[in-house]
């Protein structure tokens, strides 16, 4: 058995099993443990350990020194500390919406947490046309609690600055700065463009200086506006879901940034599911039904978010300036502008950049995939350029419908 107490190394299944047996007291001594590596994300190793006698299970997640998607990304495994610490904090701010954290190990850069195998990854579920009527309510409570409650308008300013320090996350922020804000909007060698969409991208995205200028402004906002403690990568692959429960996972990109970044990622990924349904459901009535469900979810997510934010502001924003007439409306207006723009950025970067989404890549019909990509790019571009008037759920539906027939 390898030594887990002195030198970091990346574990394989047998190591993770030994690790749990020797470093944790989670399972009884007579447990019959099995281990499987189940990670399908771009960065980490995720081991599920099950006691076959009792069915009791646990997840061990380890950060490797390079990203799984490409060893070009060398990343500090300290991101595992960030993930463990923010999950513990989010558990207090938004109880019931994150997995329980049991253990963090700064030598092996791994943590142990609740196994959510009774839930499923939301992206996978949406690609099977499943519906989750409570999602908008759940995600908006999570967003308002984790974002508004970590902002300057609510927190003691010195404590907030301590949190900013604790969650400085330069390497993962750099990934986002490059992969979301820069590379998709230029002809960058790391981009991964579908041939049938290339000409559209050259003409409409790379060839548009007005769009380039707006992405530069948004990148600056992302890098300098330490507004709230973000999840930082809140796509539908970072959400575990079942009918009556929503759990937000994988917050390793966490840092203090603009609130709209989290909300915008949620909305963009609902739009990917919408575009996927449009391209893949043959039965017209079923297609309309599922697309309407997703439209309603987008509308409810934006509108509930805004309503809950206003209510929480009135109850919890204690900074003296928070009650100045008009300030709350100014603040939420800026958050909503940024939300629309980030929705647009995510829609573009998942089509053009290195990190794609299955919603699009799983569309088998090449013409339908190209059409789906063009819808995402067109909606994305409009949301970036015209973000200032996109303030309600219905405004998003208007933009989506404008390009839906492409
Ligand atoms: C190198 S990491 C690529 C992408 O995967 C993560 O989930 C983030 O979305 C990142 O941009
Ligand atoms: Mg992730």
UniProtKB/TrEMBL annotation:
Q: Which GO terms describe its molecular function?
A: ATP binding; S-methyl-5-thioribose kinase activity
What does the record give as EC number? 2.7.1.100
Keyword annotations of the record: ATP-binding, Kinase, Nucleotide-binding, Transferase
Q: Could you say which enzyme class this protein belongs to?
A: transferase
Which terms does the UniProt entry file under GO BP? methionine biosynthetic process
Aminoglycoside phosphotransferase domain mapped to chain residues: 220-269
- Its protein name is S-methyl-5-thioribose kinase
Naturally occurring in which organism (per UniProt): Anaerobacillus alkaliphilus
Taxonomically, what lineage is the organism?
Bacteria, Bacillati, Bacillota, Bacilli, Bacillales
